[in-house]
Amino acid sequence: MFNFRIITCPDGTDIIDTTLKTPYSSLTPSQMEDYIEMDKKPAYMGRVKEKERKKMEHRRKIGRNLLYRVACGLGLA
């Protein structure tokens, strides 16, 4: 069972409703492919966001490091 439902609007856009669940038995094979693809996207986006968050935190920590700031001031970094 998927923990979301893809709702297609009249203009052709798809909306993901996370309050509804979709059983596997109610999907056609082509819909199943769409749901599997959509199920992978949030996981991938979560990994990308976590990687970006860690990168920004690393930059923040480096920027606060006294030795790094001195090296930048002397033109070494």
Report on the structure:
By secondary structure, the chain is mainly alpha-helical. Helices cover 57% and strands 10% of the residues. It is built from two helices and two strands, in the order E-E-H-H. It has a two-stranded antiparallel ribbon with strand order 1-2. Strand 1 and strand 2 form a beta hairpin. The chain is rod-shaped and about 65 Å long. 0% of the residues are buried. The mean pLDDT is 89.
Describe the strand arrangement of the main beta sheet, using strand numbers: 1-2
The number of strands is 2
Uncertain parts: none
Mean of residue pLDDT values: 89
Secondary-structure blueprint:
Blueprint: E1 5-8, E2 14-17, H1 29-64, H2 66-73
Antiparallel strand pairs: 1-2
